[in-house]
Structure formats: C-alpha cells, structure tokens
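Hello everyone,

My group is preparing for a crystallization screen and wants a predicted model to guide construct design. The compound we'll soak is manganese (II) ion. Before spending weeks at the bench, it would help to have a computed complex in hand. I've included the protein sequence and the ligand's SMILES below. Output in structure-token form would be ideal because that's what our pipeline reads.
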Amino acid sequence: MVSFDHSVTFESLKAVDEGQSKFSLVYLDAHPDAVPTLPHYYGSVIYDASKLTNIDMKSSYIIGVRAWDQEEVAIVDEIGINLVTPAEIIEEGMKNMCRRVSDNLTGNVYLSIDIDCIDPTFEP
Ligand SMILES: [Mn+2]
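Reply:
Good plan to model first. Here are the tokens for the complex, ready for your pipeline.
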C-alpha cells in the first residue's frame, strides 16, 4: 500500500498485530506521531500502536524526528520506543546508527516511511 504519510498505517499495524509473532516497528518520520488526545489520527499512530500487543517497543525505532512537542516526548519516553533525531545520526554516523538499530531488531520488522523524514532540500 502506498500513502505518503502515516494516515493508514495504524490499520495496517493492527492487522499485523493480530498475528502471533512479536515484531519491531521501524518508523521513519519527521514527527513522533505520539499525540495522545486524538485517537486514529495520523499524528497519533505511535500512541495508538502502543496499545497493540505484539509490537516490541524496546526494539522499535522512530527515526528522523526533527519536530515534536513536549507532550509527545513524554509519551515516547513512557512507551519506551527508541527515538533517533537527524542530529544524532550526524553525530553517530549513518552506518553506525543503521548497525546499532538492526542489531536490536526482532526477527520480524514492520518498516513504515513518511516522506517528510527526507530532508526538505531534496523532498520539499
Ligand atoms: Mn510526519
């Protein structure tokens, strides 16, 4: 399925979650999408996903976050999902960050990409 943001991601995650296996979520986005006050909104996907049973948050990542509000940061901390900012990628190096993330993933991975995680210089 192709959509350019995470507006349909929760429904897809919910279907995958109905399987028996634990899985990691790798979520590329400029935003944490952890708004707790408006369920089933494209800005609340991570918060909604935290209510599912088979996503292993300790081995899951939101990568590329460059815009957030404090409420979302608190939710991300509470959920326990890992967050990687572009500044951290620059500091650590892309190759090292990719190795660190892939070493921590479960055998099953759901990858979701919001186009806004791309530098706006290249994807305005
Ligand atoms: Mn986004």
